Amino acid sequence: MMLPAQVRIVEMGPRDGLQNEAVAVPVAVKLDLIDALAEAGLRSIEVGSFVSPRWVPQMAGTAEVLAGLRRRPGVAYSVLVPNLTGLEAAMAAGAREVAVFGAASESFSRANINCSVAESLERFAPVVARALAAGLRVRGYVSCVLGCPYEGEVAPEAVRRVAVALAGMGCHEVSLGDTIGTGTPLKARRMVEAVARDVPVERLALHFHDTYGQALANILACLELGVAVVDSAVAGLGGCPYAKGAAGNVATEDVVYMLDGMGVATGVDLRLLADAGNLITRELGRGPASRVARALLAGGQLPGKA
Amino acid sequence: MMLPAQVRIVEMGPRDGLQNEAVAVPVAVKLDLIDALAEAGLRSIEVGSFVSPRWVPQMAGTAEVLAGLRRRPGVAYSVLVPNLTGLEAAMAAGAREVAVFGAASESFSRANINCSVAESLERFAPVVARALAAGLRVRGYVSCVLGCPYEGEVAPEAVRRVAVALAGMGCHEVSLGDTIGTGTPLKARRMVEAVARDVPVERLALHFHDTYGQALANILACLELGVAVVDSAVAGLGGCPYAKGAAGNVATEDVVYMLDGMGVATGVDLRLLADAGNLITRELGRGPASRVARALLAGGQLPGKA
């Protein structure tokens, strides 16, 4: 099995996780969570989003989150920006890394941001250009890479086109999102192979949701292609807006556990990570969706590393 | 990715699942569950265990289960037998396929059945011989193949020895059990590779628990070695006696979903399977542990097959 020697985890809990939780979390708790994640060893943390709080009330206060960060050396704190207004607000609040997004599915793009995929990319081009000109790093997301809640199957070619566009604008990394978690390993691998024909695997990240329990298997299948960046959310925060009550982001604990067990370095301490997850799930009034976190809470053990 | 064209699922719900549930399920409900599983297309179902009901009250009534089976052509209904007494009772009740078990860990064997691994194999040899002489098929289980609740890591060599012994006695198949679910894909693969040096992969089955969320990834890693039999439990029935509240057997729905998505034939209808899971989780008064089942209950969709 060919695996990367190390994997960088991009922690999605404070953004993609919390934006899909029913409870809106106060800024002070978000700051505690972010610091606990950094303490656990995470070096890339998405901390919020400058979407309208009318649409996503859970992301209100992201400017205060950025302003209040106890920044640690070597940790990148990114925010999602939907447009130039959001970018300007993010920069005013001190953002040094931002992320933009496009969908691989026309219907999803229409439903989510009310424009075609091509239009969304045209809108993002000046956002990326402005951010790069200001010296920021920009990450690109592609959603619905393995399925769309409206269209079903999504062609790898559609994913490749959007990924190429985002990389071409200057996104340093393109994160491939299985937004509804319907993907399976062989399709995940074929999708990454299609994208990697034009965007080097070194610039790709896997962003898989665990709605159907497939995320770890999908990640494993794609690590073997050389992808070495994985997005995940502590405690499996978030959910699926298209299947209320179902699981959301793959849990960071579960990803780190798998990588630890295979001797793939992440720099993350699993115990401290589980502590960060307990911090936020207590606030949300529920247990973690992470199976590793649940096993640890139940008295389960952590095996030695490979 | 090299994958088998088809995989046989051995359904563990009525035995390994229910024996680890807090609620003891009446025989009539077990019979309904077993029939619903057969209706969904499962062709190998473990329906109970002839252990003492003093030790495992959930398995009381297995003789009545065997007697009451609405047997369908082509479906194998097996029972676990711990000793000659259990075998005789199983045969008296009409069992045509039985299963015996050994542990790859000395401490686990001592704690579980109060004898050494070698002694347990000596005790099982006449059980297997008697069953074979009576024309029954015998399956062998090895537990703790990727970790022991008392010893931690387990050497692949220890697994190989027990598997070889069970195969040598005449077990037609040896099922490799990650009893506490601590395994990860690379270790799972190395373990199977060690065993397959002496027992052909065609005679091996994967029996992985999902306590740490790793089961599907571990299965995927081992399917690539050519193993084509997977044990699982509908709805993820069961739990981990060594981490109360944690997940148990990998859910049959999640396994079938992954295999469907990769174009690997199982003969199982996922909708009917989820119905079987709903039947038993209603009886248990809780939701399914299967992520696929939960997504479907939440209104999630099933993608087309590969």
Automatic annotation (TrEMBL), chains A, B:
EC number assigned by the record: 4.1.3.4
GO molecular function: hydroxymethylglutaryl-CoA lyase activity; metal ion binding
Keywords: Lyase, Metal-binding
Keyword Isomerase: no
A Pfam family reported for this protein in Swiss-Prot or TrEMBL: HMGL-like
GO BP of this protein: ketone body biosynthetic process; L-leucine catabolic process
Pathway assigned in UniProt: Metabolic intermediate metabolism; (S)-3-hydroxy-3-methylglutaryl-CoA degradation; acetoacetate from (S)-3-hydroxy-3-methylglutaryl-CoA: step 1/1
Record-annotated Pyruvate carboxyltransferase domain positions: 7-274
Top-rank EC class of the record's enzyme: lyase
Top-level taxon of the source organism: Bacteria
InterPro entries per UniProt: Aldolase_TIM (IPR013785), HMGL (IPR043594), PYR_CT (IPR000891)
Alphabetized Gene3D superfamilies for the sequence: Aldolase class I (3.20.20.70)
UniProt KW rRNA processing keyword: no
PANTHER family (alphabetical): HYDROXYMETHYLGLUTARYL-COA LYASE (PTHR42738)
Family: Belongs to the HMG-CoA lyase family.
Protein name in the entry: hydroxymethylglutaryl-CoA lyase
